[in-house]
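User: Can you predict the 3D structure for this chain?
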Amino acid sequence: MAVYDFLFQTLDQDTLVVTVNRRLARVLRLEYEIFLGNGAFRGERFIDQDAWCEQLWQEARVAHSLAFRVLPPYELSWLWQRVVKQTLETDQIIQLKKTANLVQQAFEILQSWDQSLDNIPLPHSEDVHTFIAIAQNFETECRRLQAIASCQRWGILCKHPVQIKHRKVLLLGFDVMPPVLAKWIQLCQEQGVSVRTGDSGSSKVNPSAYVYLNGRDEKQAVIKWARSHPNQNLTVVVPKLQEDRQTWITQLEASGLRYAISGAQSLSQEPIITSALNLLALDTIQDREAWSDLVVSPFIGGAFTEFDARQKLRARIWAECPQEIALQGLISKVDLSTAPVLLSGLQIRSTAPADRDAWLAFAIQTLQQMGWPGERSLSSPEYQAVASFYECLQLLANWPEVSHPYQQLRHLCEEQAFQPQSLENPSITVLGLLESAGYPAEHLWVTGLDENSLPARVSPNPFLPVAWQSALNMPRSKAESELNLAQKMWLRFCTHCQQLTVSYVSQEGEVHRQPSPLLAGYSFVLSESESFQPLKPPLEMISDAQGLPLSEQELLALKGGSSILKSQAQCPFQAYARYRLHADGLEYYPRYLNAAHRGILLHEVLQSTWQSLQDRSGLLALNRAS
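Assistant: Here is the predicted structure, written as structure tokens:
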């Protein structure tokens, strides 16, 4: 990529390039190796800010004998949730995880802006007062654990500085410079280190602008564009990628393109991991629908050898079981003998122990007894998910304080971001706004540039005083700051690529959208609806016109009369499946009562009630008794 060639030409041994994120550091490292050629690159030139901070922190621990350990993300979020519950003195918080995340974000903003709890101005609203109480309890817990949050490292480094090895530091991709990082940079300069910020870039390009009627047309236009540019470096930026990620994946999978997409979903959302977590909590399942899904899961032993029997079991569960039913009730209510592998796994369950080490042994034994992760060969993403799950079990084994093993394992899986390993040399790379910071691309398409995406809407943290956030220019607190940030992003888009395309969707549902104000003055081309044919794999043709020979016993037992001839005339395959293979369809059991069934049920209830009352006097007597 030519965007950073000037940087590569001037890079020397004393320069360290610090990037805003890990992706940009990795890309620059690879491109620098290509620029030098023949593997001439030696040493560390590019590092992301979090890795740099960790490197400096480890040096400071040795130099200043700092005893604190940095809490890993999963332990940190678990501690915040626990402190929130303890401070509010209730377990009945409707959105505990969301509340804890907002409190944690408020605490991280304070650390990044070099502020303490004492700096929060009076008077305190109820939400601010609650936050201060939670944060104080969090700090108390951290002192007890002799630990800190990762966001506190820069502040401690400013109080306990270490010697910088490189004499020059270049910061890339930093659209916003938090005050605590600016303070650290000043300390570096006082040591004689030359620190500068900025992005290399090519001359500004004029974008091609398109407007689409809906999101589907925009995505398919991107796919058509990717197909028309084979073997080229194509990048797509999606401002709201986290919300629309699965839709993009679906469209890209159907297109047959080799792609890489940033962001990741929780490991716990992978079906194979959901199955494992459910198997470890069978004693807590009380829902008929959950049982019906579990018995036909492909990730437990016997899923294919007992496929037909388990499908029938699923129908019987819906027909014979109440809405709420536990494991023992299921075993006694439904005859599971037709699926002996499943029945054996359910019957030999033991009670989960409370001790962490004993529970881990119990968990592994339970998964083995239930035949997880199943009989069939795993796909590559499934194999990677299973490997990540076992890593979570190892993290649980090393967690210093474990009082609720299952809940903490589930928390680990929820916090573990999972994304299958990307393909090498993808045809197209899809990034979110934050991931695109400084990212060099030959051909760039920025989608979804409407008035709500860039600049982003103001959204201050609810646990800090809004006016105070605005006065200190904290994240998402003022419209002017968001506009300034958006302008920096737009300038980077125009200077970090050779060809730029932008687009937005004019209508979402019944809401009409306008283009981003950054695109004022550009002429948009209204594009017609795009369509593409998904790639279809070649099908193998097998001649299967002859059925199995009819034995004498089958001939004697064959029944049906003229219906056999009628069925054969209508569809030979259907006749063969019905009369030779005895393939009976499963009885349909609706999950919810339709209007007709509700009417019949109401009629029967009223009839039964009136039969017990007999007449008007019985009704009046019932009324007096009540």
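The chain has 25 helices and 17 strands. The radius of gyration is 31 Å.
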